[in-house]
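Two proteins, back to back. First:
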Amino acid sequence: MATLKDRIGSAQPTIGSWIQLGDESLVEILATGPFDWLCVDLEHTTISIDQCGKIIRVADLAGCPTLVRLSGHDPSEIKKVLDAGAAGIIAPMVNTAQEAAAIVSAATYPPRGTRGVGLARAQDYGIGFPKYLDRMERDLVCIMQVEHIDGVNNLDDILAVSGVDGFFIGPYDLSASLGHPGNFEHPDVVSALERVQRTVARPGVLAGIHVVEPDDSKLRRVISDGYRFVAFASDMLFFAHRIDEVSATIGKIRKQGSAT
């Protein structure tokens, strides 16, 4: 069976979704759906390490690999989410090759890296470490999030770091780093995104992006642009948009009722 590492290494795009709410039932629904992977967001949510571990277990049982978007570059957090069974990590705000190398080191065991050896769920609770070690050497996924102009300036060097599988662009933070938060029409922001797009178009580069709104046309567009690692909406946004639709339907029914 192909691993997530195998799939992201192919020419076909993978499509995942974001976990923001931390509810295990919603995770199970998403994990049994069409997604190639799920990503638990520890950076912009209140999801704890304990909740993260439970989410990973639920997704694993449904046959869906899980990545974790870290809250920062803390080696202790990297170790904990991988020990919980995550297939890999997405590291936020990576601006230099040195930062990327330190993150990869924290995620990999000696002699290649500096990750401490623990016996937890990922290692079959202490009886499967040799098998896990072999699997991690082959299948660990490390994605660097580039969301600052410094990261764009250093993107080639970041991608050249051994163990980095690809990058994930953060357009909003990138625009903010240029002094124009959310203004994607500003010439400085347009120029930076054009530079990123040239990298996306290069053969062999794994580029990722988050289509935040559950918009089919935007999903098709970013895949057409060359992104092969695409997050589509999130548990929160799928739910919120569906509630909006239901609210509109109920509003119409009530309006019709009051007119009779």
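And the second protein:
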Amino acid sequence: MQNNFLVTTFLFFISLSQFSCVPDSRPKRITIASSGKIESLDPARASTLKSIQLLSSLGDTLYELNSKGELIPELASGMPIFSKDKLKITINLRRNVLFHDGTLFNSNALKFSFDRFKRIGTMNYILGNKIQSIETPSEYKVVINLTKPSSSINGLLTAVYLTPISPTFYKDYSDKFLNDQFVGTGKYILKRFSNEVQIIDPNLNHWGNKPNNEGVNFIGYSNSSSLFGALKSKQIDVLLSNSIDDSQRNNLNSLSKKNEIKEGNSPATEISFISLRTNSYPLNNLNVRLAIAKSLNRKLISDKVSYGLREPLRSIVPPILKKNKQELWPEYNPVEAKNLLQKEGFCNGNILELPLTFRSNVPADRLIALSWQEEIKNILNECISIQLNGVESTTIYKNLNLGLYTAVILDWTGAYSDPEAYLTPLLSCSELDGEKCKKGESVYSGSFWGSRIVDDLFLESEKLNGDERLAKLIEIEKIASESIPYIPIWISSQKAWSQNKVSKPIFNGAGIISISDLKFINE
């Protein structure tokens, strides 16, 4: 309640500053709202879509993916150059680029940023053991030495987590996080930061095209209803869809079709799934996992929860990243589910108790859980009983690797546009005991599942390119789909809605809105 009062007060004063008796032809400030808070603006720690969106406005990456998924040089002056053995990548850097504190961007600054992320980044697994070292043979040239040929390195070079930061400003933070400040090279400069409100102004010294607006105010609302109401009452200019209630998402979709507001859509890259703890009873039994997977009616859940706006999915890789769009994971079949459970001694008086945890601050999660629970009561009540447990998302993320959740609803968007960016964080394991993962990414996803064959195939895929590599990655997913450490639910695109007086939000190939392109129109 207090948070909403502060946000409303802030918006009131912003609205006063937008109007004046003196005519002003300059572009005005854009107010963008979404739900939740931003805990950190440090590229080494930031992990939420909201923080990544803000960082992409404050910083630049070496390359960017356009809306067609093509690699476009940003801080690089040209395309990466690979050695014949594919173990060295030479990148020439753009000259005359300044960080927000006036420090010159050069090869040493890039090396500082990469090395820091590799040391302390919470997402540093995306580098894995790929990068051995970075050399700086000249002021505007870097050579990235790879431990082995890597066909996914192009995707890494677009990752917002690797946004260069000023070595001068961060000199005392080379081994620790700086959460409430940011100094990069981007089109905007951070003027104010709190968990609920972030204000950014145009960077007048930016090397590229200047923003179409005078700056942006990012506002965080505590709940979906107040966020929805703010757009309807025109308190805000743009609304980001993350965590908004699906009924309201459907309402906004209808308004956009009536041309009352504008709607922008990203490529469909966010997958939602249920992570199953495979290392302990009852889900250490493959037949039990298969039965549970076959009890999930994706089409029903999509229709009831998302009004059909989210596509049912039987894959942990977005279809746009696979040529054949093959769905490998078990289909809905309650009859087979019951037969499997009976085979394992359930039903007929012995009911499988399944605790299902969902993120209490993500509206869709609760509705997914309730819909599945209701469906189970209707078709398999003599075999399965689902007990629901709502937990705040940050608490879930902190506890996933502790094995506290038998089954938990999660979502994931890859750090870059490649199947590997989905398979590695869900399936890779560095220490195995049979099919139990003791250490690795699948521990942090809550499944604790692993496979030596899968780990070997990951290594083999790094030596391949094109269709051969894609086939190897699909083989990895096929093996996982037969062991069922996860149950895919659906796939979503990011959405954003703007008032008609504001230009339509446009997403790039990585699912990030181009904030600098937003402008007021017809004025």
